[in-house]
UniProtKB/TrEMBL annotation:
It is an enzyme of class 5 (isomerase). GO terms for biological process: L-tryptophan biosynthetic process. Keywords: Amino-acid biosynthesis, Aromatic amino acid biosynthesis, Isomerase, Tryptophan biosynthesis. InterPro entries: Aldolase_TIM, PRAI_dom, RibuloseP-bd_barrel, TrpF_fam. HAMAP family: PRAI. Residues 6-202 form the N-(5'phosphoribosyl) anthranilate isomerase (PRAI) domain. The gene is trpF. This is N-(5'-phosphoribosyl)anthranilate isomerase. It comes from the Bacteria. Pathway: Amino-acid biosynthesis; L-tryptophan biosynthesis; L-tryptophan from chorismate: step 3/5. Its EC number is 5.3.1.24.
Length: 210
């Protein structure tokens, strides 16, 4: 079994990106959604990416962005991957010459596998917690037993993950990757380096048992 990949999302500062990289994160996430407390400007994003060491991927998070807006950001910011957190169709997610993740917000009664199958071009499907009116970053976990055993694309698990529960999540769900934001913060948009290290240590502990 390969090691679970780890993404630290909602990075707003160079020092937090470096803390994530030094702790062993595989990717960082930058939020381009103005309503988010973790939103970054193009200038902030460029500074963060310029400071990243090699082999740490950058993921840009978007919520129902227009093609014009997204294209302008991509012209200015050299992102490695896109993450769509709104109501985007498969067509909305394609055409940018970048791999993408599609986020689905999970609630009881959803046919997760069928929803995921609507995005055959996605590099992975990210499952997050459904909260009415909130596209993500809720800090709340969902019932992992709702996740089907067979997913059509690699599974990225998000939603309320912390150092206290991520090892259990990996043991139960066996995701390709985990994605954390609020669970490693001192305050919204400001990461805590010790929490990042603890989170990644717990991921590696769970890896060693797989």
């Amino acid at each position: 079994m390969t090691a679970v990949r780890i993404k630290i999302c909602g990075i707003t500062r160079v020092e937090d990106a470096l803390a994530a990289a030094e702790a062993g994160a595989d990717a960082i996430g930058l939020v381009f959604y103005p309503k988010s407390p973790r939103a970054v400007s193009v200038q902030q994003a460029r500074q963060i990416l310029a400071a990243l060491p090699p082999f740490v991927s950058s993921v840009g998070l978007f919520v129902n962005a227009s093609r014009c807006e997204l294209g302008e950001i991509l012209d200015a910011v050299p992102l490695d991957m896109l993450q769509f957190h709104g109501d985007e169709s498969a067509a909305d997610c394609s055409g940018y010459h970048k791999p993408y993740l599609k986020a689905l917000r999970v609630k009881a009664g959803d046919d997760i596998a069928a929803k995921a199958a609507e995005y055959p071009g996605a590099s992975g499907i990210l499952l997050d917690t459904y909260v009415e009116g909130v596209p993500g970053g809720t800090g709340a976990a969902f019932d992992w037993s709702l996740i089907p055993e067979q997913m059509p694309r690699p599974l990225v698990l998000a939603g309320g993950l912390t150092a206290e529960n991520v090892a259990d999540a990996i043991r139960q769900v066996r995701p390709y990757a985990v994605d954390v934001s609020g669970g490693v913060e001192a305050s919204k948009g400001i990461k805590d380096a010790a929490k990042i290290r603890a989170f990644i240590q717990q991921c590696r502990l769970a890896d060693s048992e797989r």
